[in-house]
Amino acid sequence: MPKVDLHIHTHFSDGTLTPEEVVREAKKRGFSAIAITDHDSVDAIAPAMKEAEKCALEIIPAVEFTTEENDTEIHILGYFIDYKNKKFEKLLDDLREKRKKRIKKILVKLKNLGIEIQMEDILKIAGPGSIGRLHLALCLKEKGYVKNIYEAFSKYIGEGKPAYEKGALLTPVQVLELIKNLGGAAVLAHPNTLKSKKLVKHIIKLGIAGIEVYHSGHTQELSNYFLNLAKENNLLITGGSDCHGLGKGRLLLGSVELPYSAVEKLREKTTRQNV
Ligand code: AMP
Ligand code: FE
Ligand code: FE
Ligand code: ZN
After folding, report:
1. In this structure, which residue's CA is closest to atom 5 in ligand 1?
2. What confidence tens digit (pLDDT) does each residue in 204-263 have?
3. pLDDT for 62-72, tens place per residue?
4. What is the pLDDT of residues 117-162, one digit of tens each?
5. How far away, in angstroms, is 131 Cα from ligand 3 center?
């Protein structure tokens, strides 16, 4: 049975693998299609497609946006978006600039807590793509301030922690509109990270097309809960590993597999031709 992973990061955001490496690793694990879902970047898509041509792997162009509502971060994935759209590229450039400013603000907060990290150190870890808190967490670990990246989030930079700084500049409504205008299908990412089930239901009401039922961070019980929610609300059932290369310790690629029908259903939801 052809299998797919619909949530993967590369080094164009906070993954550690190049697009080419992601393609080769996915092929090795027997996937027939993968979606590249970098935060605020589509720069990995063209090189991934080029590499994928060599081994007959399908690449679904996608992106992951951070939005905020009720003081909670809500990640929304856009699939089959028109990733070559010039206005969209400009918006992504802006979002990446704002990410840098946010990290600088977090560094000031960390300094007040006695932790000295230079922007250059994080930029070295971040590589060519959009900078994010995972890069900062890796830097804190490298400098010995924390034992692992999870401690960095739970002690300093996670939501509500002393060095946390709001990052999202877009609301879910704005992102749903944007994805629609780009011809794509919107999916609520890792719904369990939202603060309440009520908020998940609110996002569903806003008109999201699908929900990530399967995710490397979900227990069987959570997947069952979101599967029922998807069925009750007539939502697409999607999922993925949310692989960050080795950014989260181990390569999560292969930990979540969906049937190819998940791709076909997403494609049916798009408003673009020939995707
Ligand atoms: P940012 O885009 O800068 O807000 O960073 C968000 C990214 O940090 C997410 O996509 C995850 O990769 C990572 N992240 C957020 N919270 C946690 C957490 N509690 N533990 C581990 N990684 C996290
Ligand atoms: Fe990430
Ligand atoms: Fe996410
Ligand atoms: Zn992700």
Report:
1. 133
2. 999 999 999 999 999 999 999 999 999 999 999 999 999 999 999 999 999 999 999 999
3. 999 999 998 89
4. 999 999 999 988 999 999 999 999 999 999 999 999 999 999 999 9
5. 14
Backbone angles phi, psi at 197, to 5 degrees: -65, -30
Name the closest-CA residue to atom 14, ligand 1. Answer: 134
* Angle (deg, nearest 10), helices 119-126 and 133-142: 110
Mutate to test the pocket of ligand 1, among 107, 131, 134 (most ligand atoms within 8 A of CB): 134
Whether the CB-CB separation of 200 and 194 falls below 8 Å is answered with: yes
- Ligand 1 touching residue 153 (CB < 6 A): yes
Banded model confidence at residue 195, pLDDT cuts 50, 70, 90: confident
pLDDT band at 273 (very low <50, low <70, confident <90, very high): low
Q: Would you list the DSSP string of 70-118? A: TTEEEEEEEES--TT-HHHHHHHHHHHHHHHHHHHHHHHHHHHTT----
pLDDT of residue 115: 97
Contact 244 CB / ligand 1 (< 6 Å) = yes
User: Rounded to the nearest whole angstrom, what is the distance from the C-alpha of residue 66 to the centroid of ligand 4?
Assistant: 10
